[in-house]
Amino acid sequence: MEVKKLSISWQFLIVLVLILQILSALDFDPYRVLGVSRTASQADIKKAYKKLAREWHPDKNKDPGAEDKFIQISKAYEILSNEEKRSHYDHYGDAGENQGHQKQQREYRFRHFHENFYFDEPFFHFPFNSERRDSIDEKYLLHFSHYVNEVVPDSFKKPYLVKITSDWCFSCIHIEPVWKEAVEELEGLGVGIGVVHAGYERRLAHHLGAHSTPAILGIINGKISFFHNAVVRENLRQFVESLLPGNLVEKVTNKNYVRFLSGWQQENKPHVLLFDQMPVVPLLYKLTAFAYKDYLSFGYVYVGLRGAEEMTRQYNVNVYAPTILIFKEHIHKPADVIQARGMKKQVIDDFITQNKYLLAARLTSQKLFHELCPVKRSHRQRKYCVVLLTTEATKLSKPFEAFLSFALANTQDTVRFVHVYSNRQQEFANTLLPDSDTFQGKSAVSILERRNTAGRVVYKTLEDPWTGSESDKFILLGYLDQLRKDPALLSSEAVLPDLTDELAPIFLLRWLYSASDYISDSWDSIFHSNWREMMPLLSLVFSALFILFGTVIIQAFSDSNEERESSPPDKEEAHEKTGRTEPSFTKEPSSKIPKKGFVEVTELTDVTYTSNLVRLRPGHMNVVLILSNSTKTSLLQKFALEVYTFTGSSCLHFSFLSLDKHREWLEYLLEFAQDVAPIPNQYDKHFMERDYTGYVLALNGHKKYFCLFKPQKTVEEEEAMGSCSDLDSSLHLGESRGKSSGLGSRPIKGKLSKLSLWMERLLEGSLQRFYIPSWPELD
Question: Transmembrane ranges (predicted)?
Answer without folding.
Answer: none
